[in-house]
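Human: If only I could read backbone structure tokens as easily as an amino acid sequence. Take your time, and here it is.
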Amino acid sequence: MSFSDTPTFGNGQGCILSVFISALCTAVGFAILFYASGDGGIAAAAFTVALIGAMMIIGVSAVLLGLPLTQLLESNGWERPWSYPLAGFVLGGVIAYIAAGALNEAANLWPDRLFLLLIGALPGALCGGLWWWLERRHRRGGDRGEG
């Protein structure tokens, strides 16, 4: 079965769920960070802004980068349970780093850069893993997730 003739790929349910769950987890993480730092009054606002922003960034990235990557992985026989989370981790980190550089927020200290990378890498890995679990594993040997 090829990428172009998968019947459920066109309806986008797996992609939409992957993006929404990843964005929701990202927003919860930001709200927890604000609440834990003593800014509990703005935790709800941080959640809302992070949810909207994450849905936009993860959604656009999933469509513009993730779907062509799915084609590449499938056509080369590289689909594995770990390949999508790994690709999402790398691409998410790169996107976060580029966005931080564009906003002149790139820090001089390595721990700050690591945190910036993780802001994109963790949601990217989660979205990639969910995409594999919800959609792609059914194309590769059923629920066994064999690779």
Summary: Confidence is low (pLDDT under 50) at residues 1-5, 142-147. The helical segments are 13-36, 43-75, 83-102, 110-134.
